[in-house]
User: What shape does this take?
Amino acid sequence: MKLRLAAIAIALSTLSGCVVASPDADTYGDAAASTLGTAVSEVATVRTLLELLDSGDIQRPAVVTQLRYSEKSLSQASQSFGSLNPPPAGDRISDEAGPLLDRAEALLQDARIAVHRDDKAKYRTIAKDMDSLETQLEHLEASAS
Assistant: This one.
């Protein structure tokens, strides 16, 4: 009986290991488009908030709260997408999406730090960088779907 329980425990531990998804090209493209769409949305949200904060049309506490949500959402989407094994047809999307998603996460972090420090001089620069990145993300999102 003990030997049987040990065999079951070993089998369960093997089966419960982390399995990375290997989707087909269409599924991978859909996942890429969804992830890039999330990135577009979060970057656009934070860019708009920085612009509103710069013009004095929104309070910092509201921006701080939304920044936390935007960073978490983007991070989760990026990590989920990054855990996929791209099919050969998805290599281009993977190669282009990775750096863009990394850049988006870095810009959201820069925005959070600037807002926490009340560094108003950086709001416009970060927003401008986000605007440019948003366009790149949108183009890749369109090509992925």
